[in-house]
Amino acid sequence: MTPRTLPFVWLDVFTDRPLEGNQLAVFTDARGLSQEQMQAIARETKLSETTFIFPRDPKVELEQGVRVRIFTVDEELPFAGHPTLGTATVVRGASGADTITLDLDAGKIPVSFRDENGLAFGEMRQRDPEFLGLHRIEDVARATGLAAADIDDNLPIQTVSTGLPFTIVPVRSLAALQNLKFEWANAKEYLGKSGGRFFYFIAHGAVNPNTDMHARMIFYGGEDPATGSAAGCGASWMVQYGVAKPGQKVAIEQGLECGRPSRLVVSADKVGDKVTDVRVGGTSVAIMRGELLLPS
User: Fold this and answer.
1) What is the DSSP code (8-state) at residue 197?
2) Residues 105-124 as b or e (16 or more Cβ within 10 Å = b)
3) CA 137 to CA 104: how far, in whole Å?
4) Catalytic residue among 20, 44, 49, 130
5) Domain range 4-126+284-294, CATH class
6) What would be the CATH architecture of the domain defined by 130-280?
7) Which pLDDT tens digit goes with each residue over 113-170?
8) 3-state secondary structure at position 173
9) Same CATH fold, 130-280 and 4-126+284-294?
10) Cβ distance 104 to 78 under 8 Å?
11) Alpha-carbon span 159 to 154, nearest angstrom
12) Residue 49 among the catalytic residues
């Protein structure tokens, strides 16, 4: 039987250089694929995430957005940052629109674009944050491999969600974060009981001169080069606790420890006591186009 051909675009996201940033495979027409088939394809790519676009009538897409589903090698996610930015970049390349709205399981996420040094800089507006559980330094130190003294006790450790819950851990120094000895097995047990999906570590200072903060996120897939969903939670946390001013642009570097430097630009606003208008932006570069042959 003739196999079905599934076109895809392979991108590096949150970077302006090929072979850096966070990798993403975008399958541009997933109509007719089952949940099991999409999960198997995501396992085949072995990337942190793979996305699947389900084209609809243009009038429906204008009203409801472009339907997209996101898979890791192990599960489907309602929302993730670099897949949102990368997929919107692919859709924008075909349509030329200045704003692309993706219809994700977590809701509608608009991504606005502007030209920047010959590349499309995309900025997603994430859902308004939910500020969830607070955590004790001693518990988080045991779960993460940090020394308790390396965690900044002037700021809270808190789980925050803009679609996916991350536990934000403020680290006192760049050096302490670079030297983090993290084991997912230890963290998984603690996170399973405390409500966060993953830890997101941030520290003031950076290796690159054009960035403000250094971040790391390590999960069951290993070290993540860039985590846009966590960065939105981090931006919300920064504004909530005065680390950044409302509307201030903060540049975050990530991925240096795994050899894939990334740059994310984040901001959030505050109206009264409510953090809102959470934005995460960056550029993406396409490095590969092809077809996957799927048995009928």
Assistant:
1) S
2) ebeebebbbeeeeebbbbbb
3) 34
4) 49
5) alpha beta
6) Roll (3.10)
7) 999 888 999 999 999 999 999 999 999 999 999 999 999 999 999 999 999 999 999 9
8) coil
9) yes
10) yes
11) 16
12) yes
